């Protein structure tokens, strides 16, 4: 029975586990620490490589200063001279630099994966931007239609308002005309009433005069 071991964060010397997979990053290689990413790992690797170079330089300077005996004192001259010595030196350098090369290769591979994720995220962002622009265009078109409908409704309202004002003005003019006619009729009626009163008075005077004449005629017959 084999026990499955969880992978560790790809950041140098980090013992945490990578984050959970997400749609944008299905195979995460780093933990949730904000500095643990491809760029941070590259900087860490570069700092370690610079530290190793500094340590080698300091060791070489210390060895030179201390005046240490050359390796030829410990080995026969035939063993350390010529191509063999160059090969031993080359193998030693390769053994020292190999971990750095392996780390650099892992970083390059991880950088390619990071670039692929960046490309995926960029495409998704571009699609979201396009969708947002389309929604904005639709919103602007709807706003233009709403403004056009509002302008049309405003124009119709102004026309209706003008029509109502004209009708109201005509009705007021008609009322003023009717009032003027009514006042004229009232004056005419008052004149007719005055004339009727005068006719009545004349009729009464004529009746009194006829009555007086009739009385006088009766008295004259009686006297005869």
What structural class do you assign from the helix and strand content?
A: mainly alpha
Radius of gyration: 61 Å
Number of strands: 0
Strand content: under 5%
Give the ordered list of helices and strands: HHH
* Share of helical residues: over 70%
Q: How many angstroms does the end-to-end distance come to?
A: 179 Å
Shape: rod-shaped
Note the total helix count: 3
Features of the shown structure:
224 residues, mainly alpha, 78% helix, rod-shaped
Provide a descriptive summary of the structure in words.
- The protein is mostly helical and 224 residues long.
- It has a domain at 1-60.
- 78% of the residues lie in helices and 0% in strands.
- The protein is built from 3 helices and no strands.
- Helix 1 packs antiparallel against helix 3 (83-223).
- The model is unreliable at 71-80 (pLDDT under 50).
Task: Give a quick rundown of the structure.
The chain is built from three helices and no strands.
Helices and strands, with pairings:
Layout: H1 38-66, H2 77-80, H3 83-223
């Amino acid at each position: 029975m084999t026990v499955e071991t969880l992978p560790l964060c790809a950041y140098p010397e980090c013992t945490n586990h990578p984050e959970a997979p997400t749609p944008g990053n299905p195979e995460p290689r780093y933990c949730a620490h904000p500095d643990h990413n491809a760029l941070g790992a590259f900087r860490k690797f570069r700092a370690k490589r610079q530290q190793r170079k500094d340590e080698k330089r300091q060791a070489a300077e210390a060895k030179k200063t201390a005046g240490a005996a050359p390796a030829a004192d410990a080995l026969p001259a035939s063993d350390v001279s010529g191509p063999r010595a160059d090969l031993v030196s080359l193998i030693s350098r390769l053994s020292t630099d190999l971990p750095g090369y392996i780390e650099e290769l892992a970083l390059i591979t991880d950088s390619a994966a990071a670039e692929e994720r960046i490309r995926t995220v960029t495409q998704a962002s571009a699609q979201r931007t396009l969708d947002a622009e389309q929604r904005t265009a639709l919103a602007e078109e709807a706003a233009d239609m709403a403004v056009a409908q509002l302008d049309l409704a405003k124009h119709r309202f102004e026309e209706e308002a003008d029509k109502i004002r004209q009708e109201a003005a005509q009705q007021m003019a008609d009322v003023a005309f009717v009032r003027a006619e009514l006042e004229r009729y009232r004056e005419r009626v008052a004149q007719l009433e005055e004339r009727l009163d005068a006719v009545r008075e004349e009729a009464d005077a004529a009746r009194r005069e006829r009555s007086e004449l009739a009385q006088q005629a009766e008295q004259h017959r009686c006297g005869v």
